Protein backbone atom coordinates (compact mmCIF):
# COMPACT_ATOMS: atom_id res chain seq x y z
CA UNK A 1 0.00 0.00 0.00
CA UNK A 2 1.18 3.51 -0.76
CA UNK A 3 2.34 5.26 2.40
CA UNK A 4 -0.24 7.74 3.63
CA UNK A 5 -3.26 5.99 2.09
CA UNK A 6 -3.94 3.62 4.97
CA UNK A 7 -6.96 5.63 6.10
CA UNK A 8 -8.45 6.12 2.65
CA UNK A 9 -10.60 3.03 3.10
CA UNK A 10 -13.42 1.74 0.95
CA UNK A 11 -13.51 4.13 -1.99
CA UNK A 12 -10.28 2.66 -3.36
CA UNK A 13 -11.42 -0.90 -3.78
CA UNK A 14 -13.01 -3.09 -6.40
CA UNK A 15 -12.41 -2.78 -10.12
CA UNK A 16 -11.16 0.28 -12.01
CA UNK A 17 -10.58 0.89 -15.71
CA UNK A 18 -7.45 2.66 -16.92
CA UNK A 19 -7.56 3.84 -20.55
CA UNK A 20 -3.97 4.75 -21.45
CA UNK A 21 -2.09 4.18 -24.71
CA UNK A 22 1.43 4.58 -23.32
CA UNK A 23 2.66 1.20 -22.05
CA UNK A 24 5.05 2.73 -19.51
CA UNK A 25 2.44 5.09 -18.07
CA UNK A 26 -0.16 2.29 -18.04
CA UNK A 27 2.13 -0.07 -16.13
CA UNK A 28 3.12 2.57 -13.60
CA UNK A 29 -0.42 3.84 -13.08
CA UNK A 30 -1.86 0.33 -12.81
CA UNK A 31 0.69 -0.49 -10.10
CA UNK A 32 -0.22 2.70 -8.25
CA UNK A 33 -3.94 1.95 -8.49
CA UNK A 34 -3.33 -1.49 -6.98
CA UNK A 35 -1.23 0.05 -4.21
CA UNK A 36 -4.06 2.48 -3.50
CA UNK A 37 -6.35 -0.49 -2.87
CA UNK A 38 -8.08 -1.41 -6.13
CA UNK A 39 -8.14 -5.20 -6.33
CA UNK A 40 -8.62 -5.31 -10.11
CA UNK A 41 -7.17 -2.85 -12.63
CA UNK A 42 -8.30 -3.26 -16.23
CA UNK A 43 -6.12 -1.56 -18.85
CA UNK A 44 -7.39 -0.48 -22.26
CA UNK A 45 -4.75 0.72 -24.71
CA UNK A 46 -7.23 2.20 -27.21
CA UNK A 47 -10.78 3.53 -27.41
CA UNK A 48 -12.26 0.30 -28.78
CA UNK A 49 -10.87 -1.74 -25.87
CA UNK A 50 -12.15 0.87 -23.40
CA UNK A 51 -15.65 0.73 -24.92
CA UNK A 52 -15.60 -3.07 -24.80
CA UNK A 53 -14.60 -3.14 -21.13
CA UNK A 54 -17.13 -0.44 -20.20
CA UNK A 55 -19.89 -2.48 -21.84
CA UNK A 56 -18.75 -5.77 -20.32
CA UNK A 57 -18.20 -4.72 -16.71
CA UNK A 58 -20.99 -3.34 -14.56
CA UNK A 59 -18.73 -3.32 -11.48
CA UNK A 60 -16.36 -0.53 -12.53
CA UNK A 61 -15.77 1.97 -9.73
CA UNK A 62 -14.15 4.60 -11.98
CA UNK A 63 -12.34 5.30 -15.23
CA UNK A 64 -8.94 6.99 -15.44
CA UNK A 65 -8.90 8.26 -19.02
CA UNK A 66 -6.10 9.55 -21.21
CA UNK A 67 -7.68 12.12 -23.54
CA UNK A 68 -5.54 11.02 -26.48
CA UNK A 69 -5.75 7.27 -26.99
CA UNK A 70 -3.25 6.52 -29.72
CA UNK A 71 -4.51 9.39 -31.85
CA UNK A 72 -8.17 8.88 -30.99
CA UNK A 73 -10.16 11.24 -28.80
CA UNK A 74 -11.10 9.90 -25.38
CA UNK A 75 -14.29 11.97 -25.38
CA UNK A 76 -16.59 9.17 -26.67
CA UNK A 77 -15.18 6.88 -23.97
CA UNK A 78 -15.94 9.51 -21.32
CA UNK A 79 -19.49 9.86 -22.66
CA UNK A 80 -20.01 6.08 -22.50
CA UNK A 81 -18.62 5.93 -18.96
CA UNK A 82 -20.86 8.74 -17.77
CA UNK A 83 -23.89 7.11 -19.44
CA UNK A 84 -23.06 3.93 -17.50
CA UNK A 85 -22.72 5.86 -14.24
CA UNK A 86 -18.95 5.39 -14.05
CA UNK A 87 -17.05 8.39 -12.62
CA UNK A 88 -14.27 9.73 -14.85
CA UNK A 89 -10.83 11.10 -14.00
CA UNK A 90 -9.16 12.77 -16.98
CA UNK A 91 -5.38 12.43 -17.44
CA UNK A 92 -3.56 14.46 -20.07
CA UNK A 93 -0.15 15.85 -20.77
CA UNK A 94 -1.32 18.48 -23.19
CA UNK A 95 -4.99 18.20 -24.19
CA UNK A 96 -7.82 20.06 -22.50
CA UNK A 97 -11.11 18.19 -22.21
CA UNK A 98 -13.08 21.21 -23.38
CA UNK A 99 -16.72 21.98 -22.67
CA UNK A 100 -18.19 18.54 -23.44
CA UNK A 101 -20.78 17.59 -20.79
CA UNK A 102 -18.99 14.26 -20.28
CA UNK A 103 -16.23 16.16 -18.49
CA UNK A 104 -18.33 18.36 -16.21
CA UNK A 105 -17.04 17.82 -12.69
CA UNK A 106 -14.40 15.32 -13.81
CA UNK A 107 -11.06 15.87 -12.07
CA UNK A 108 -8.19 16.68 -14.43
CA UNK A 109 -4.72 15.22 -13.88
CA UNK A 110 -1.84 16.87 -15.74
CA UNK A 111 0.87 14.41 -16.78
CA UNK A 112 3.21 13.63 -15.27
CA UNK A 113 1.22 13.24 -12.07
CA UNK A 114 2.10 11.91 -8.63
CA UNK A 115 0.33 9.14 -6.75
CA UNK A 116 -0.94 11.82 -4.36
CA UNK A 117 -2.55 13.73 -7.24
CA UNK A 118 -4.06 10.50 -8.60
CA UNK A 119 -5.43 9.59 -5.17
CA UNK A 120 -6.90 13.08 -4.68
CA UNK A 121 -8.52 13.04 -8.14
CA UNK A 122 -10.03 9.60 -7.51
CA UNK A 123 -11.31 10.68 -4.11
CA UNK A 124 -13.04 13.65 -5.78
CA UNK A 125 -14.48 11.48 -8.55
CA UNK A 126 -15.77 8.83 -6.14
CA UNK A 127 -17.36 11.27 -3.70
CA UNK A 128 -21.08 11.64 -4.42
CA UNK A 129 -22.09 15.16 -5.37
Can you describe this structure?
The chain contains 4 helices and 7 strands. A 5-stranded parallel beta sheet has the order 2-1-3-6-7, with helices on both faces. It is an alpha/beta fold and 129 residues long.
In short:
The protein is 35% helix and 22% strand. With 129 residues, it is an alpha/beta fold. The protein is globular, with a radius of gyration of 13 Å.
Topology, element by element:
Elements: E1 15-19, H1 23-36, E2 40-44, H2 47-56, E3 60-66, E4 68-69, E5 72-73, H3 75-83, E6 88-92, E7 108-110, H4 115-126
Parallel strand pairs: 1-2, 1-3, 3-6, 6-7
Antiparallel strand pairs: 4-5
Helix pairs in contact: 2-3
How far apart the termini lie comes to: 27 Å
User: What is the total tally of β strands?
Assistant: 7
Share of helix, binned: 25-40%
**What's the shape?**
globular
State Rg: 13 Å
Largest sheet, if any?
A: 5 strands, parallel
Features:
single chain, 129 residues, five-stranded parallel beta sheet, 4 helices, globular
Amino acid sequence: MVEGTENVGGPFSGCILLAEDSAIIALDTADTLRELGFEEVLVARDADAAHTLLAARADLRALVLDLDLDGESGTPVARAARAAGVPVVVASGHADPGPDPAFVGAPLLRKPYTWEALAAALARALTPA
